[in-house]
UniProtKB/TrEMBL annotation:
Residues 1-27 are annotated as: Disordered. Residues 1-19 have a biased composition (Basic and acidic residues). InterPro entries: Uncharacterised_pept_Zn_put. This is Neutral zinc metallopeptidase. Keywords: Membrane, Transmembrane, Transmembrane helix. It is a single-pass membrane protein. Its main location: membrane. It is found in: Membrane. It comes from Polaromonas jejuensis.
Length: 300
């Protein structure tokens, strides 16, 4: 992937050296307004929705009884947001990909007569406070609609490469583009509709909706790649394969298989490997968000 020298975003917050979030991966207690969630719940939530989720706390919340997270989180005092150091190669990569998504979506929204509001991206280590509750690195990267921020612990890229078998810069870019896809859904009002459904439908039905939401974010990631490549020729040989491989490795069926469990389609929240590949590819081939209507699609 060709990205070095391209514009970097101003919207990256570096919290990696903050004390505030705490370093514990599985500390468990104190989540969701005092409701204690033990390791069991987290393990189940991880199976169901850990990779590239939209607000995985929603899933945790469902599992812990479905009470809304209306309670305002006690914000820990944090230093003012600051940018990552200029010599940090990985942070530079993330900032450049984020800037590229800004350029693409600004253009797409403008052409449709709208205005794109740029999301922030937070780099953290271990755990951090979000408007959706405490975010944990173990949940994988996620987007919080309430503060319009993408959260990522860059250690996830090691997991993606070494544990999930999905190396490559373009695979890493796809991860960010997928989360930004959730931001686009938020701006389009799709996330709010999903929220309305929560509590009104059964868990199995909600999971099925979640799959459509996630596949649409994959499709939006493809729309980004199409437009970015048109404008800036970012793609190199092997890039598409690397993203398609990542999409396959984080399919629900693949994750359930690799965690040694049975494959349970009713518990899917992100879609199968084949579905994730298909929708990413749909965005990539068409470059059009109209092609990403996963909610109306008969066959995913
Ligand atoms: Zn997602």
């Amino acid at each position: 992937m060709k990205w070095e020298g391209n514009r970097e975003s101003d919207n990256v917050e570096d919290r990696r050296d903050d004390e505030g979030g705490g370093g514990g991966g599985f500390s468990g207690g104190g989540l969701l307004g005092g409701r204690s969630i033990g390791i069991g719940t987290i393990v189940v939530a991880l199976l169901g929705g850990w990779v590239l989720g939209i607000n995985p706390l929603t899933i945790l919340n469902l599992l812990s009884g479905g009470a809304p997270t209306a309670q305002v989180q006690q914000q820990q005092p944090q230093r003012p947001a600051h940018r990552p150091p200029a010599d940090d190669h990985m942070a530079k990569f993330v900032s450049t990909v984020l800037a590229d998504t800004e350029d693409v979506w600004k253009d797409v929204f403008a052409k449709a007569g709208g205005t794109y509001k740029e999301p922030h991206l937070v780099l953290f280590r271990g755990a951090t406070q979000t408007a959706c509750g405490q975010g944990q690195a173990a949940m994988g990267p996620f987007y919080c609609p309430a503060d319009q921020k993408v959260y990522i612990d860059l250690g996830f890229y090691e997991t993606l490469k070494n544990r999930l078998g999905a190396p490559g810069e373009f695979a890493q870019a796809y991860v960010i583009a997928h989360e930004v896809g959730h931001h686009v859904q938020n701006l389009l009002g799709i996330s709010a509709k999903m929220d309305q459904m929560r509590g009104r439908v059964s868990k199995v039905e909600y999971n099925a909706l979640s799959v459509r939401l996630e596949l649409q974010a994959d499709c939006f990631a493809g729309v980004w790649a199409y437009n970015a490549n048109n404008s800036r020729q970012i793609l190199e040989g092997g890039d598409i394969e690397s993203a398609m491989n990542a999409a396959a490795k984080i399919g629900d069926d693949a994750l359930q298989r690799s965690s040694g469990g049975a494959v349970v389609p009713e518990s899917f929240t992100h879609g199968t490997s084949a579905q994730r590949q298909r929708w990413f590819n749909t965005g990539l081939k068409t470059g059009s968000i109209k092609a990403c209507d996963t909610f109306s699609a008969r066959n995913l």
